[in-house]
Design brief:
heterodimer; A: 203 residues; Gyrase A, domain 2; Cyclophilin; four-stranded antiparallel beta sheet; 4 helices; elongated; B: 286 residues; mainly beta; 2 domains; seven-stranded mixed beta barrel; six-stranded antiparallel beta sheet; 20 strands; Cyclophilin-like_dom_sf (chain A); ATP binding (chain A)
Amino acid sequence: MRWRRYGPDATLLDCDSLEQMSAVRAVVSAAGPEHVTELVPGARSLLIASRDGERGLAAIRALVESADLAHPPTVGGREVVLDVRYDGADLDLVAETAGIGVDEVVELHTGAEYRVAFTGFAPGFGYLTGLPEPLRQARLRTPRTSVPAGSVAIAGEFTGVYPRSSPGGWRLVGHTEAVLFDPRAERPALLAPGDTVRFRSLP
Amino acid sequence: MRRVEILDPGPSALIQDLGRPGHAHLGVPPSGALDQPALRLANRLVGNPEGAAGVEALLGGLRLRADVSCTVAVTGPSVPVLIDGREVGSHVALHLRPAQTLVLGTPAAGLRCYLAVSGGIAASAELGSRSTDVLSGIGPPPLEAGDLLVLGTDTGVPTGADTLAPPIPRADLTVPVLLGPRDDWFTGPAAALATTWTVTSESNRVGLRLDGTALRRAPERTDAELPSEGILTGAIQVPPSGLPVVFLADHPTTGGYPVVAVAHPDALPALGQARPGTSVRFRTSF
């Protein structure tokens, strides 16, 4: 771990792994310090902002450094199941790249349990980890100018769902009718960091 | 119902309050007025709480008509303000009678003027804020001619006769920054940031795009890739071109290019008023 300065009111903690980052996030979330204004996970880092500036950041550092990161507290991540029609435009390409059949792609994608590691790109877009090895594939060489809302896609070590229509370079394997983001809902984002996610194949 | 009608939004008019910070982990930018002191002042002048929603008018040009008697104030850079064709001035509480028309001219310097109306604009809030976020599309759509803005209930007493000197936006800015978190990705980052950068016309509420002598990656980082990490307002991100972007309120919440330094929060209002062509230098000791 390494603490890095991020302006006067924040610090970026470089972590050795995604697991370590998740453990630190759980420690800080569970303590719930009132002065923490943002707690933003990244792929290998955690950004922590405090309205108390240096003093608040020092308190966070003391909290994390005294925590048992091997046994982080459980923070109430939700379990989300997404129903998917596996009819994505890149399904054949994904099968071909993996050297398996389309049915096996669906089996692999629905067989794994995923975790929301971090968000970004668009409100409600979660980067889900836990993707089986054969499905870890490069982005499209040429991104699409428009990917339909609800598209279920893969790229690198991640899978995810496009909350709304946008440009995108991930490989599309299917689509879901689930609403990923609704700014007027009590819980605007269906997926938040720490949630676990499963995909279920619709006939 | 208390309302005002937008006759002409000018180049761009957006509803803004103090934004929706605290949702970055859901991918939601903070948004909110770029020049927050200006919006707060406009609200105080008309007797609103500082966080009431007003209009952020890019380069002035806004025209509106009151349906009801209300108090209004325009802040930000100095800008001509006319009621029914008569010049009445900015940075002062003004009384607008029903059917009177308020017109903003074009500010001679700076970018964004703020209009507050007594009672505030009662657009529906999303994630606790009425701000329009141009990156994510959260919040009310940009204002158009014919829009009827519903006002909230008057809650306070307007300041009355106070008149304040408008701030004068500078054509050259010196911005205090703290190096990091990824200054070690660059060769001589402090000296490179201290050179003169120019705000380009590609800039918007997401960020200021700067032109100048590109920052150079440290040799061992030339082809390195950064795993996506969190971003805050004021972060100075350096894409492969070496030309930095200073992120403003509608910034993406995570990104995969290194942030070389972060601007001091006190410098953000001036950055939000920086026109294309403005010179910017970053000072790493303060």
